[in-house]
Amino acid sequence: MENTAELEFEGVYGKYEITRSDELEVRNYRLALLVCGISFTSGLSHWLLFGASDAWIWFIPMCISLGLALKWIHIYAQFLHRTLQIFWAIGSLGITILILKGNSQELISDLVSRPMLTLLVGPYFAAMAGLGFKEFFCFQRPEAIGLTLFLPISLGSHLVGVFSQDIEMIFLYLSALLLLILSIRKFGMDAASDIGDKSIFEYLRNKDQPAES
Question: 38 lies in a domain?
Fold first, then answer.
């Protein structure tokens, strides 16, 4: 990654610098996103090629990596950032409950045969779709908007029975592939683009702090 630590940028609310710490956060975010994309795609491929019995294992790196990505992601709106993290936490808790309370080997099969269980894992994927929306809003990448649309379509359809399971799987697999493509393409960007305008972060942080008497 290009070292931009000594470069100064002109932001909306003043000048700012990209530090080595900023670069490390961006690198960690991109690596976490890549692990999430690989895990999501591998989990679905495992399911399709070898059956559902052991495919649940891929939920573990998926949950960890998305949580780390949401820790290091740069979002101006603190409320949106916290909301995505809360969705991730609720969804990860739901996945953990399903793993611990039932037969983990049947987890994927249970999700397929009992659509209401989608409510337990749904917040996790809502956080993933929200991350995709953020990436599209900031960079207009087509794979990001595809992820944002196809993922809720697939899970929403499974919950209420709009499409067949085959079509739902197509949408879900497309979502995983698009997340993987998105994560790979992130490595072709400079660090400053992912960090954003630090003067805006500073302005919002100062705005939220109570004035000293």
Answer: yes
